[in-house]
Design a protein that fits this description.
Largest sheet: 9 strands, mixed
Number of helices: 8
Number of domains: 1
Radius of gyration: 18 Å
Shape: globular
Structural class: alpha/beta
CATH architecture: Alpha-Beta Complex
Mean pLDDT: 92
Number of strands: 9
Oligomer: single chain
Low-confidence stretches: none
CATH topology: Spore Coat Polysaccharide Biosynthesis Protein SpsA, Chain A
CATH superfamily: Spore Coat Polysaccharide Biosynthesis Protein SpsA, Chain A
Strand content: 15-25%
CATH class: Alpha Beta
């Protein structure tokens, strides 16, 4: 149990661009948390809509909160996430993208209690996947066996909590990955860096389905790039393993698209 810091700080990073319909709810879910020692960092990528205005107006409603707002062009999702990490001063860092939100006001309290009691370095909770209408689709949970990462990305990034030391030790997200940058990071810190995640026995977020990763062909491009570099992390995978992996991704996409269409009938 950690006893040196009575109320450790958590830095929550939200990245966004042209998210005027989504950003307020995401911000409110962070700023309404019961846990007091939260540093909130919003990285806004020079939107063409009213996103920045909404960010500032929402922040004004929480004058007692620590909020950092950065508005400047970026080189994509990974670059924006990295900006947040560089600014973060918390003991623990989390990323909650625009459109995602915490399921209630006590989530961070629960996460930080677990952090203090169990001294984990990498905590992973569950995430409830919802569509744009707010309908629950399924629960995204990590598999307790870290080796499952060789077969699929079983880590919901919006329900992932990392100690800052992991970024200091293993580096940041790779900006050359326009998608799957989180999966690349999990593989790198697990198989090359020796980190292990701890499962948190509760859900923390609503994850909005249909974001950047819904562009299946771009996603497959970056997953193929990632699979070709697995040996760098000490992972022995075969051509057959790669084929099965990419086929599973495609099948999951097709299944979800069919499910979506059937729900509209």
């Amino acid at each position: 149990m950690r006893k040196t810091n009575i109320m450790p700080k958590i830095s929550v990073v939200t990245i966004c661009r042209n998210a005027e319909q989504l950003i307020a709810e995401t911000m409110k879910s962070v700023l309404s948390q019961s846990y007091k020692n939260i540093e909130y960092i919003v990285i806004e990528g020079k939107s063409r809509d009213k996103t920045l205005d909404i960010i500032h107006s929402t922040a004004k409603d929480y004058p007692d909160r620590s909020i950092k707002i950065v508005s400047e062009p970026d080189e994509g999702i990974a670059d924006a996430m990295n900006k947040g990490v560089r600014l973060a001063t918390g003991d623990v860092i989390a990323h909650l993208h625009a459109g995602d939100r915490y399921i209630d006001n006590n989530v961070i309290e629960e996460v930080m209690k677990s952090y203090q009691e169990n001294a984990w370095r990498w905590g992973v909770a569950g995430s409830i996947v919802v569509d744009h209408a707010g309908n629950e689709r399924h629960i995204y949970k990590a598999n307790p066996d870290y080796r499952t990462l060789l077969k699929k990305n079983c880590i919901p990034h919006q329900s992932t909590f990392l100690v800052k030391d992991i970024f200091d030790k293993h580096g940041l997200f790779k900006v050359e990955y326009k998608q799957a940058m989180d999966y690349e990071y999990w593989l790198r810190i697990t198989f090359k860096g020796g980190e292990r995640f701890t499962l948190l026995p509760f859900n923390t977020t609503y994850f909005l389905n249909g974001g950047k990763s819904s562009n299946i062909f771009e996603l497959l491009k970056y997953l193929r790039m990632l699979r070709s570099s697995m040996h760098e992390y000490g992972c022995d995978v075969t051509v057959l393993d790669d084929f099965v992996f990419l086929s599973r991704v495609m099948a999951f996409y097709v299944f979800n698209e069919l499910k979506k269409k059937l729900s509209m009938l």
